[in-house]
Amino acid sequence: MSHKKMNMKDKLSFYDVKAKAKFDSNEYDIREKNGRYFAVTKSQSGPHECWRVLSKADGERLK
């Protein structure tokens, strides 16, 4: 699993399942797991992480 810190201008929308709230962030890591790409950021309401599935094209472009 690879981790890269992204500070790009691409703002992505995340959904915090625990807080049941949607939020935008441009500070996230791109992680590859089993051939799929995910954007992972810290929750705004707690210590947990929020994951978003990315398309292969977006994952390749953002990593």
Strand-helix topology:
Blueprint: E1 3-6, E2 12-16, E3 21-25, E4 28-33, E5 36-42, E6 49-54, H1 56-62
Antiparallel strand pairs: 1-4, 2-3, 4-5, 5-6
Overview of the molecule:
The chain has 63 residues and is mainly β. It contains 1 helix and 6 strands, in the order ββββββα. The strands form 2 sheets. The chain has a 4-stranded antiparallel sheet. A two-stranded antiparallel sheet has the order 2-3. A hairpin with a 2-residue loop joins strand 4 and strand 5 (36-42).
The overall strand count is: 6
Mean pLDDT: 90
Q: Strands across the major sheet, in which order?
A: 1-4-5-6
Please write the string of helix (H) and strand (E) elements.
EEEEEEH
Helix content: 10-25%
**Largest sheet composition:** 4 strands, antiparallel
- Given as residue ranges, the uncertain stretches (5+ residues, pLDDT < 50) are none
The N- and C-terminal alpha carbons lie at a distance of: 12 Å
Roughly how many Å is the radius of gyration? 11 Å
- Shape estimate: globular
Structural class: mainly beta
Provide a count of the helices: 1
β content, as a range? Answer: over 45%
Task: List its traits.
4-stranded antiparallel β-sheet, 11% helix, mainly beta, 1 helix
